Amino acid sequence: xxxxxxxxxxxxxxxxxxxxxxxxxxxxxxxxxxxxxxxxxxxxxxxxxxxxxxxxxxxxxxxxxxxxxxxxxxxxxxxxxxxxxxxxxxxxxxxxxxxxxxxxxxxxxxxxxxxxxxxxxxxxxxxxxxxxxxxxxxxxxxxxxxxxxxxxxxxxxxxxxxxxxxxxxxxxxxxxxxxxxxxxxxxxxxxxxxxxxxxxxxxxxxxxxxxxxxxxxxxxxxxxxxxxxxxxxxxxxxxxxxxxxxxxxxxxxxxxxxxxxxxxxxxxxxxxxxxxxxxxxxxxxxxx
Length: 288
Prior knowledge:
The protein folds into two domains: 8-103, Arc Repressor Mutant, subunit A (Orthogonal Bundle), CATH 1.10.10.10; 107-277, Four Helix Bundle (Hemerythrin (Met), subunit A) (Up-down Bundle). The chain is 67% helix and 6% strand. It has helices at residues 23-26, 40-54, 66-73, 77-89, 106-121, 125-147, 150-167, 172-188, 193-205, 207-217, 221-239, 243-279; strands spanning 8-11, 14-17, 93-96, 100-103. The strands form two sheets. A two-stranded antiparallel ribbon has the order 1-2. Residues 8-28 have low confidence and may be disordered.
């Protein structure tokens, strides 16, 4: 991962560049009426935590080596080490012996893990998930159209083009992964950290259904074309900063997903039922 880190601290009536400060300078005793400088390790931890919240650092990302990251931030290695320990105590990073430090999926998994088990045990929850996803993605598309920066739109367009390329092929994992990445880019363009992380958790929950649905639709040209046009409508509305159109396009898309998924699940159930009938052997009499 080649990410450059700039560490800054903003305080009321004060903007401090922390590059070059030492722990000693940050902890000098000051009179009660003087501004207290934050500890360097606290500022480093806050900076990295902010990047995790905003999605700049994602689950599975590996932080640069300690020496490199400390140099990028302009802080000492002990200060960086203390900051990493603070984040590790919150479960936001995990240090692997001899393998580096990685961002965990703590923010998504605390929501995802219990619901994943329940989704498997209670299939009717799929409809509730799609209903909630319609509400969330409609709002996310609206906010993204209102708030997306040029950088957000560049990322969204890249995700959209990658998805279209994936849809040209037959690799189902690539298609579903690109579909999820496109919708996640919309969630992150809302600039609401809760929406971004909740979207990620919901898309993880829906991943099996998304893959199943795309597998069925790829052999139906009209349905596949309609799916592409729906994604394009969402993309255009956000890029043109049309909130109402973006919401409507996102809701139309989820309505289509709900309908086709229901048909897909019914088709799968019929195939399973037919297969059971085909392989059931009633030649042997029942014992009394």
